[in-house]
Design brief:
The complex is a heterodimer of chains A (about 290) and B (about 160).
Chain A (H helix, E strand, L loop, with lengths): L1 H30 L5 H32 L2 H38 L8 E7 L12 E4 L12 E3 L4 E8 L4 E5 L6 E6 L5 E6 L6 E7 L9 E4 L11 E11 L4 E8 L8 E7 L6 H4 L3
Antiparallel strand pairs in A: 1-12, 2-5, 3-4, 3-12, 4-5, 6-7, 6-9, 7-8, 8-11, 9-10, 10-11
Chain B lengths: L9 H14 L4 H4 L5 H12 L6 H15 L5 H15 L1 H6 L2 H7 L1 H17 L11 H24 L7
Helix pairs in contact in B: 1-3, 3-4, 3-5, 3-9, 4-5, 5-8, 7-9, 8-9
The chains are: A alpha+beta (about 290), B mainly alpha (about 160).
Chain lengths: ~290, ~160
């Protein structure tokens, strides 16, 4: 009996070592973004059913709530939405005009990448992620709805993050506060170029590598610069919270906070530039 | 060891249920307290069915959790592997204890899991550990007897024989 126990323990130790090596290799591969993103997207497709099952009770609750909601309340909300719709529609032509003008001006500035953005509306999947994945959210849209890695996610206020993995019907958005995330920005006030990095904690962003002479101050709005051609330009990202000067490094320690309401996300808008073609895997997956 | 055992299906079934339970949407204030169901179920099978479940099961449930929860690929795989090993190693002693004693001990492998998870994340530069990481360690204790009785009943129902019997 003791021998069996000993040998099975030895086998367990061997397995522990093998799997540890395997896991370490996976972690290393995952940090090299893109290598694993595709695989991860396909693997995520296989596990989507879990999210669907987990969403059932909440869905049922919502259905109950809807079924028992006051008729008066529904009518009131309907009227409210209709008013909002009229308002937005009224503003649309002005926005179209501004976008056209903007594009014309951009062409003058020789920025070829100013094409219109394609947008897609996506709800958050009602799921609970483990605490270690706090800087990610899951959307209930996937490759089947033309979501693919690299798309920028926005809420009504600003940039939320970007799609990092897309399953068939679900996708993962890495929030801009994730420590692996960075986005090129400019100061809206004067066009100063910078890069915003995630702080790893919700609500914290940093803007490193600015010289002490840089013109940036508390309250400045940072918008996407479109540099690197990855994101469309001009979307609000963050507001500068504090600027401290680091005399040793001769740089500024700039802290910023996202303008998007990351704690109250219910749905996001995904966009990608028309000029950037989706990767082949997104368009013609079997 | 004769072919596929009777009632083996309860293992994947209980794990699937654990994954769903873990993904259940809850208010954030409650969600941070949820025990790590997947780990606890994995550990249960490591204790109850050592020939079927062990370090390997920990690895694969961890990998599934990584994919599902969008953590670093391999992070939870490694963490659950370590937790499973701790239990496999001390399995015989663990099985001797009363349920309440087991409940007192089960936070240990869960703590190891959280520690490994935090270390991997820190090493990969994917975020700092948080004090909320400790909450599932605390809730593992009250969750264990509940889970034990449920899974034990399920196991008997399915006719999966206990280890050593």
């Amino acid at each position: 009996m003791e021998d069996i126990y000993e040998s099975s323990l030895r086998a367990a130790i061997v397995r522990l070592l093998v799997f540890t090596a395997l896991a370490a290799a996976l972690v290393a591969a995952d940090r090299r973004f893109g290598v694993v993103a595709q695989v991860r997207g396909h693997a995520a497709t296989a596990t989507e059913a879990v999210f669907d099952a987990a969403a059932l009770p909440a869905g049922f609750g919502q259905w109950l709530y809807g079924a028992y909601l006051d008729r008066e309340e529904l009518l009131r909300r309907n009227a409210q939405l209709r008013r909002a719709n009229v308002l937005l529609r009224a503003q649309m032509p002005r926005h179209e005009f501004l976008e056209k003008e903007n594009r014309r001006l951009r062409r003058l500035l020789l920025d070829a990448g100013g094409g219109p953005s394609i947008t897609l509306f996506a709800e958050l999947a009602p799921v609970n992620l483990s605490r270690s994945a706090e800087q990610k959210i899951i959307l209930s849209r996937g490759r089947a709805d033309n979501v693919f890695p690299g798309q920028l996610a926005l809420d009504a206020f600003g940039v939320v993050g970007q799609v990092t993995a897309a399953g068939l019907r679900k996708s993962t958005v890495t929030l801009l506060t994730d420590s692996s995330h960075s986005v090129p920005v400019q100061v809206a006030r004067n066009g100063l170029q910078a890069v915003v990095y995630g702080g790893g904690v919700r609500g914290a962003l940093s803007v490193p590598h600015l010289s002490q002479q840089a013109d940036i101050k508390e309250g400045d709005l940072l918008v996407t610069s479109g540099l690197g051609r990855r994101f469309p330009a001009g979307h609000p990202v963050a507001r500068v919270v504090s600027v401290l000067s680091d005399d040793r490094e001769n740089t500024l320690a700039v802290a910023a906070a996202p303008v998007a309401q990351l704690d109250y996300l219910k749905e996001v808008v995904l966009l990608h530039r028309a000029t950037v073609d989706p990767p082949p895997a997104a368009g013609d997956s079997p | 060891m004769s072919g596929l055992r009777r009632g083996v299906w309860v293992i994947p079934l209980s794990l699937a249920a654990a994954f769903i339970l873990q993904a259940l949407p809850l208010p954030p204030a409650v969600a941070v307290w949820t025990p790590n169901w997947v780990t606890l179920v994995t550990l249960y099978w490591c204790v109850a069915a050592p020939r079927l479940a062990g370090v390997g099961l920990g690895f694969f449930t961890g990998l599934a959790a990584d994919v599902l929860e969008a953590t670093l690929l391999g992070q939870q795989a490694l963490a659950k592997c370590a937790a499973a090993f701790l239990v496999v190693w001390q399995r015989r002693r663990f099985r001797m204890y009363h349920l309440w004693q087991q409940a007192c001990l089960v936070p240990l492998p869960v703590a190891l899991e959280q520690l490994v998870s935090a270390l991997v994340r820190a090493a990969a530069g994917a975020g700092e550990p948080d004090f909320t990481d400790l909450l599932p360690v605390l809730t593992a204790a009250p969750a264990w007897p509940l889970l034990f009785l449920m899974l034990n009943g399920l196991q008997r129902l399915a006719g999966l024989r206990l280890a050593g019997q």
